[in-house]
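Dear Dr. H.,

I hope your travels went smoothly. While you were away I took the liberty of generating a structure for the chain from your last submission, since the lab meeting agenda had it listed for discussion. I wanted you to have the full record in hand beforehand rather than looking at slides cold. The sequence, exactly as received, is reproduced here:
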Amino acid sequence: MSHPNVKKIERRLIRQLSAPLHDHSTEFDYKHSTWHLWKTLTSSVKTHKLDLNFILCFLSSYKCAQRIILVQDLEFEYDYKLIDMILEQPESLIRSCTLAMLIEPIDLYVRDFHDLLILKSNDKSNNDISRKLVQILLSLDNDDTQKFKETYKSLFENSVETDIEVVQGEKTNMSKLLIQLLEGKRKEESTHSLSAAKLIAKKLSEADEGDKLGIDYDTFIKIFTHDAFAQLSAIFDMYEDQYGHPIQLAIEYQCQSKIEAECFQDIVEYTRSPSGYHAKILRQALDK
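The corresponding predicted structure, in token form, is as follows:
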């Protein structure tokens, strides 16, 4: 016979999981939930310290649509703009996680990208920021890239390309790489051409040997930002199999700085294992 407390937990979980997404059922008392959240925020305002741990735990018990309702009602009833309050907090992993509970993914990427551009404008020597900008754009498909640009323009008035050139420098290699990624014109087929992969691998090898007939930098960027991931993977494998060098060697010959090489290496890692790449980024964030 099961313990009565277990039955209670089961019933509570069933109520939570069965709460509808768009209408206010008795299980989802949004007025009471909003009031409870407001009381905690009121205390935070008095102490000048927003309790992100509480907010994250509180929001995690609601579905996505319910969280949006809570945020909207909090602003309507109490004039508390929760997203703005969280954005005012110092950048941290828990801040990012809390925002992710409240903001559509593309909006979150856009805001993070803009924050990083501001940081870069204040610290030109911080090359890690340039790498983070590439990491944000790397996993966007073509449709998401278009939404990213539209959302950026809507939120910050300027085009993202303009802001990149202001911060990274007009026509610099990093600007070119970021803007090419933002074109959102990567081929998305899952097949690849072995003959094309063999030709590009040969050109990369010629560049390694100082041959002027190798690949110029603009073409190199276009390959990495426009070719399908399946095609890129075939190029990397062909280069390594045919010429006995890791693809990193070809990247280092093409790039003028360490940070550029690291950004292209990120593209290689993402191409070969998106899940492994994201796991690495998460581990790095947790270690900081």
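Two observations you may find useful: The chain has three domains: 10-100, 104-182, 194-287. The CA atoms of residues 34 and 70 lie 6 Å apart.

With kind regards,
E. W.
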